[in-house]
Fold this sequence. Notes:
By secondary structure, this protein is mainly alpha-helical. It has helices at about 1-15, 30-40, 45-55, 60-85. The protein has one domain (about 1-80).
Amino acid sequence: MVSIMVDMHLAESAANLKLTEADSTRPSYQQLIEAIFEKHGTTRATFDSTLYKLSFQPTEMNAVYDLVLERLSEMDAGAKARSGQSSDGSEIVKDSVKH
């Protein structure tokens, strides 16, 4: 469930940033969502049913979302590290002297 939700949040972000549907070679948001369900071997109906059941278990739902947020934060930190930014968004200045 956590992995599906992480992928869905990434797809939603891509759609919000207009990284989908820019031309006919890029998948639509709906196509991304369907691909996510296929990747994880589930269906929209199964996902929705599980999410509905979790909505009656707030402690478990919060635990799932905590894991989703943790994974997204880790991905964000990794992306920033690869791009030369610190976690606060400022540029990392590397020492030019090698030991």
